[in-house]
Write a structure and sequence with these properties.
The chain has 210 residues and is an alpha/beta fold. 30% of the residues lie in helices and 24% in strands. It has a 9-stranded mixed sheet with strand order 3-1-2-4-5-6-7-8-9. Its cofactor is S-adenosyl-L-methionine; [4Fe-4S] cluster; Mg(2+).
């Protein structure tokens, strides 16, 4: 049970429920193959049944950590920092992104976009979910749209989302890992027929790295 004072710091974005942070290779989307420091923030109520980090959902089990500690560690190892979750926009990202940028870092986010966009970002990866759709504002500024394909109905959802993003947004279809063998041939065929889309793979899983 956290104290009232700690909760106030969390609400202000001075402390955040840190699940894990680590230096690795970006595995997905536009920046795949590049080194980056990942900060995984706990807390998510979007609840995708196929989520591969369900342990991130309950923020209460992840210790509130001062952003100064997080930023110091991240910026000492990489100048590219990716904030992910969980759903990082559950929390106010303003202070942590300001602190990272003050250290000269490029700051990326991976988000469902279900909550108000806070923080200052160099790259926004929007991965929308049917359960809780993105806010209108994030469609306008997303740099990449990454739709997870679990079954054939997700292609229709992908097209519905593609018409809402800005014209410069890069479009990706990514197979859900547990169903990749079934869906990958369908994704390949779809992209060949609809070349505005690109294929994204979770290459970090093939490389057996975090």
């Amino acid at each position: 049970m956290i104290t009232k004072e700690t909760q106030e710091l969390v609400d202000e974005g001075i402390m955040l429920p840190l699940m894990e942070d680590f230096y690795t290779i970006q595995g997905e989307g536009f920046h795949k193959g590049t080194a980056a420091y990942f900060i995984r923030i706990g807390g998510c109520d979007v609840g995708c049944h196929w989520c591969d980090v369900k342990e991130s959902w309950n923020a209460a089990i992840h210790p509130p950590t001062h952003i100064g500690e997080i930023v110091e560690k991240a910026s000492s190892l990489s100048k590219t920092v990716v904030i992910t979750g969980g759903e990082p926009l559950t929390w106010d990202m303003t202070k942590i992104t300001d602190a990272l940028k003050a250290k000269g870092c490029k700051v990326h986010i991976e988000t469902s976009g279900a909550y108000k966009l806070t923080g200052t970002w160099d790259w926004i990866c929007l991965s929308p979910k049917k359960i809780k759709l993105p806010t209108e504002e994030i469609y306008k500024v997303a740099n990449e749209l990454k739709v997870i394909v679990f079954n054939k109905h997700d292609f229709k959802f992908a097209e519905e989302q593609a018409v809402r993003v800005n014209e410069d947004c890069i479009l990706y279809l990514q197979p859900e890992w547990s169903n990749r063998e079934k869906m990958m041939p369908q994704i390949v065929d779809y992209v060949m027929q609809n070349p505005k889309w690109k294929v994204s793979l979770q290459t970090h899983k093939y490389l057996n790295i975090p």
